[in-house]
Amino acid sequence: MELTYTAADEAFRAEVRDWLRDHLTGEFAAAKGLGGPGREHEAFDVRVAWDRHLAAHGWTCLDWPEEYGGRAASVVRQVVFHEEYARAEAPIRVSHVGEQLLGPTLIAHGTEEQRQRFLPGIRDVTELWCQGYSEPDAGSDLANVKTTAVLSDDGTEWILNGQKVWTSLAHLADWCFVVARTSPDKPRHHGLSYLLVPMDQPGVEVRPILQLTRTSEFNEVWFTDARTAAGNVVGGVDEGWRVAMATLGFERGVSTLGQQIGFRRELDALVALAKANGSAADPLVLDRLTRAAIGLDVLRLNALRSMTGLADGAPGPEASIAKLAWARWHRDLGELAMDVLGAGGTVTGSGYDLDEWQRLWLFSRADTIYGGSDEIQRNVIAERVLGLPKEPRA
To answer: Coiled-coil region(s) at which residues (predicted)?
Structure first.
């Protein structure tokens, strides 16, 4: 797409900029730049309050239809908001999973009853969500999930049993959207359902996973006769694969614009560090910084291209391009940060006190694995975008 700004768009930009300037004060100003992958523990309560403050003033769910509390914002207006949000160094949002993954999924595939029940809590940031996809034996191979869901004898509830892993922010979430096997006698992709499950119940156990960064935003989740209402299945029983793929499309499309707020902030700070410690004088480091800046622009343009294809609410397999691109870019940024730091980057403070660059490098090791590994994304692109023969299956 060719991105141009009209006078009305620039007026909207001024509105966003002025509002952020007037409201990023006090404790919200102190949380500027905090949060994001590997740093979700930073000022979490303040960031929740900030998200709710945004919601109270109509700045959440901009792209949602007006009937569900959004602004039906155009692609250009969404870009403007993300640009100004980044420039203001506003805190990284905590409601990403609900607002940018589940919300669009419910709008596209949910029932009206489900939309009326769940969208207001997402919009107002009064209910936080997590994603129950991966399992110990079903990471990138999502169709291999073994978590089961069966209807109760009276047909009023689904009863879930199984284990999920690498569940981001499950220890803080109120609800989880879970891919579970509801028809074990059907082929892999055809017996799955997409269920909305409350986390605060006796049948749900959450165990945080200690990461290399010594933080724990990922979790293991056990369901032991956990329950959810029979009506909390999205897209129909045994139709969960289609809905789950739609969610992944939203995750790898529109939502990457918000993700890139953090990326831009990290790159700008790394450039400033390289100038300050003199490493930018090294032609090789300067070349890599330049390539990183160009690469981030490419990520942005790809996200914009993805957004132009969402008019029907059905993201396609092309969204895998975004995951493959940003994961490698961010991993390479972590490696570049260590080279900018030099030998000092290998030393921590007392008690394993990591600085922001060490944390970035350690956490970004996982970027090419979680959310769908690079190998799987290449297969999706090859088979479903380019039309190449499928990879042989054992």
So the answer is: none
Residue tagged active-site, from 99, 251, 266, 318: 251
Query: Residues 375, 335: one domain?
Result: yes
Active site residue 127: no
pTM for the predicted model, two decimal places? 0.87
> E strands along the chain, which residues?
129-132, 148-151, 157-164, 175-181, 192-198, 204-208, 219-229, 233-234
pLDDT digit string, tens, across residues 18-69: 999 999 999 999 999 898 877 888 999 999 999 999 999 999 999 999 999 9
The reply to whether 40 falls in a domain is yes
Residue 311: half-sphere exposure toward Cβ, Cα within 13 Å: 3
Q: What's the burial of 335, exposed, middle or buried (CB within 10 Å: 0-12/13-18/19+)?
A: middle
Residues 294 and 177 in one domain: no
How far is 214 from 354, CA to CA, in rounded Å?
A: 9
